Amino acid sequence: MTSPVRGGSDAAASGIAEPSLAELFRQHHGELVRLATMLVRSRETAEDLVQDVFAAIQRRAEALARPEEALSYLRSAVVNRCRSALRRQAVARRFHDLRDTDYGLAQGSPEAELVRDEERRAVLAALAALPTRRREVLVLRFYLGLSEAEIARTLGISAGTVKSSAARGLTALARILGEDS
Amino acid sequence: MTRTEYRLTDALAAVASRIPEDSLHPLVAERPSRASGRRWAWHTRWLPSALAAAAVLLVIALAVAIPGVGAGRPFTDSGTGSSPPPFYVSVDWNDQILVHSTSTGHITAITPTPSWHDGGDFADTAVSADPSGRMFAVAMNDWDGSRTRIFTFSLTSSGQISGLATSTIRVPGLTSLSAALSPDGNELALAGIADTQPSAAAGTTEPGPPRLLVVNLRTGHIDTWAGPARSGGDDLIQDPTWSANGRALYFLVTHCRGGRIDGANNSVCPYNWPAGQEWIAVVPPGTDSLTVHRASAELPSGTSQAVVVPGPNLIVLSVARSARSMTIGEYTVGGKMIRTLYTGMPDADLESAHLSGDGSGRYVILNEDRSTVLGWISNGKLRKLSIRGPFGFDELLSNAW
Q1: Do A58 and B29 count as a contact with CB atoms less than 8 A apart?
Q2: Domain CATH number, residue B105
Q3: Is-contact B291 B302, C-beta < 8 A?
Q4: For residue B400, is it within any domain?
């Protein structure tokens, strides 16, 4: 069951069929699961959250009035669900557990990669220790490569806040990783 | 690109590479069964019926003994109100206080909470209004400080926020927060799960035991109740509601018996607690301790929330095991059902459903499925509100009229 994206757009005006929100969702399924995994640090939870967003969007086609913002909406919805999971389950408060999460790193890695995976784990543990908003900004910027304006739209904050959150987040990461000297 | 930026990009790319497209579970059109994620333990009543009867008698005794409890304000239009308060206050995902016009749905004011610009990151939040609907209190658990911060403000007649102030009272950190501002606006009742710090050196916190706090906003004095003394499960305290005279508090205690810890170190019934009872705390003036009694025998299985309305009766949000649909019913405080007010969509996701009331207790708001259904209960129907958060942030975390 899919729900067409509503509202006028250039594509609609030109007669080009717009992808439904559900189709767009499927196209970006992998990206959204990866994004969620980086935020909640559990792939299983991430897949559940993304599935929940998909189910919610099916029930709620009217949620999107502007097709050009569909992908941004999906990312926002996934980020929201991640926050919800972290808050409701208090998972986010257990930093010591989070630092043990390896995201599947080192599974089947050749020996030469193991050292590198250890370094990556240190980076991910430092990322997990950041406040939620800073972590989200850094993941959206350094995984998805979004611009400040795109991140602002996704998180519902100003571009200035994106800039300051990214700067503070990177400073904190560098300090935790011992790179600030 | 700095070394830190390079390392971060590399680490995130490595995580992404571990999740190839062909390893993803397919999206399914039907909403998946929640059973796997919500294996709360359904069980039969665990209290002897004699104790249940005694509890009901206790309620009657308390209603007689405590002025303002049981008598309350005249209240005849529970679920029948036709003219709700003009403004609806909520806190969104970005820790901003939003004020919506009830009639138009337009935002009349939006203000970041005072700590927001500091990069503060709040783990949980609750909003409460006084009976006049003009004075509000917002409680937020501060991620970094492991404390609950309190902000107060009032609303102008045009829906603007006025006098936003940060309390200097140091309140312990609580998650699963709910709050109630006393009728005179001087005390704030907070319920939730206390933060604990098993390792102060590591700066980490973990969810601890349940807590009911009564914070005197004028003197800073805090009364604390640590929940019922029992073993073999976890308790959650929530939904405090003041009696009309402000000397007693009703609240819900839900019990997860036989809960287990899953791989993520969470209780398997973190939110949809299987059994609940209404309790009463007598709040003495001054610094005397709270006196707490259990009031109801047992509320229906699957009770998620119970909001006291003047009378007093309870508005209970629960999910039936067989139908897997959400029901809102009116109950006596003793636990006897009076009527069904609303039945939600099938396979309701109680984790994202939230009941709240206005300061007078006359209007009960349902925020179902992350604002998909948002409205107040009236004559057995849900009157929808045209309220949405900013784009992409349509789940309003906490709300009050």
Answers
A1: yes
A2: 2.120.10.30
A3: no
A4: no
